[in-house]
Amino acid sequence: MDGDAPHSIGDLARLTGLTVKTLRAWSDRGIVSPSGRTPAGHRRYGPDAVARLRTVRALRDLGLGLAAACALADGEAELSEAAAAHADALTAQIAALRRRRALLLAIAHRGGGTAPDEVASLVSLATLPDGERRRLVAQFLDSVLGDSARGGRDDPAVAGYARTLTPELPPEPEPAQLAAWAELAQLLADPDFRALMRRAVDHQLAESAAARRAGPAVRPGTVAVVRAHAAPALAAGTAPGSRDAGRIVEAVAAQRARDLGRHDGPALRDLIRTGVDAARDPRRDRCLRLLATVNGWQQPESPAPQLDWFADAMRAHTPA
After folding, report:
1. So what's the pLDDT on residue 243?
2. Predicted confidence (pLDDT) at residue 161 exceeds the cutoff of 50
3. Is 128 left (phi over 0), alpha (psi -120 to 50) or beta?
4. Is residue 24 predicted with pLDDT exceeding 80?
């Protein structure tokens, strides 16, 4: 029975897939009105009620509220606009659910040894609003790069450091990216780590300025020079206290003296040592690895083995 004959509420339930209880409630609220009643007082509904109920149910199945579905069924609202708005809302909900799923997986991947306070910290940092996350990153960059005496952000070198040190968490991060961001956020907020990175950047910028004054040729920095000399020695098993290691220390010092237009001596050796110590700090290495994970970059090769070897060689071959 789906023609012009009046329908009982049971017929409506069969034709629309709605329950009798729901139909009675909707009828009492005026969402669908009976076209008449039987002599016994039972409600009867016309074919227009079937079409209306099917429309309302279809819109409800798409997630619209009952009032919005009724307004659309009555033509009181533009269907295309309402559908677009609801689709946008669903997009935001889906993104939030995916982020929540990624966060749960990040917690699961940590294993059973994760303490409750660690979970609370992970959730808090991983769910920071975009504005709070950007503010934390900006404070970190200002602390490390914000001294106008260093040329400001217009300095290409400073701008390059800013790009390298800026995490960009994607809208739908993977579990590993969320976990990396949470750990990175703790580092970025740490005053001791900010001071370390500021010293490292200051050292590199000072070296770059000295190299430019020494001539127009492009010269590698201390870390690159040290790694180039130390890597073969480390691979060959050369001991830091050996004569060969001493010759490598002398070679690095001689090259940096030429590159920076300075004389080899205690001041230059201190400069080299400062650059090496800042670059081999485990927190800096960890920061760069976390940044690579958050931004989807290739993981950098750690310079720590070569720098640690050279630091030991410097100590062994530097007069007291």
Report:
1. 94
2. yes
3. beta
4. yes
Place of tokens 């005026």: 30
Exposure b/e, 152-180, CB count within 10 A at least 16 = b: eeebebbeebbeebebebeeebbbebbbb
pLDDT reading at 281 higher than 50? yes
pLDDT of residue 145: 87
Residue type, 62: L
Q: Find residue 43's DSSP bridge partners.
A: 37
Confidence of residue 65 (pLDDT cuts 50, 70, 90): confident
| Residue 196 · residue 281 · CB < 8 Å | yes
- Residue type at position 10: G
The answer to whether 73 touches 59, Cβ cutoff 8 Å, is yes
Amino acid, res. 73? A
CA distance from start to end of the chain: 104
Cα angle value 193/195/198 (rounded, 5°): 110
The predicted model gives 262-290 an average pLDDT of 90
In whole angstroms, give the CA distance from residue 159 to residue 209: 15
Helices (H), ranges, 219-265: 222-235, 243-260
Side-chain-side CA neighbours of residue 273 (13 Å): 14
Q: What is the pLDDT of residue 290?
A: 93
The number of beta carbons lying within 10 Å of the beta carbon of residue 106 is: 23
Rg (C-alpha) for the chain, rounded Å, is 34
- List of residues 6+ apart from 126 with CB closer than 8 A: 99, 103, 106, 178, 179, 181, 182
Instruction: Return all residues near 59 (Cβ < 8 A) that are at least 6 apart.
Output: 68, 69, 72, 73
CB neighbours of 77 closer than 8 A, spacing ≥ 6? 68, 71
In whole angstroms, give the CA distance from residue 139 to residue 29.
56
pLDDT at 148 over 60: no
Kindly state the helix (H) or strand (E) to which residue 36 belongs, with its residue range: strand 36-37
From CA 56, how far away is CA 76, in angstroms rounded?
A: 13
Backbone angles phi, psi at 45, to 5 degrees: -125, 145
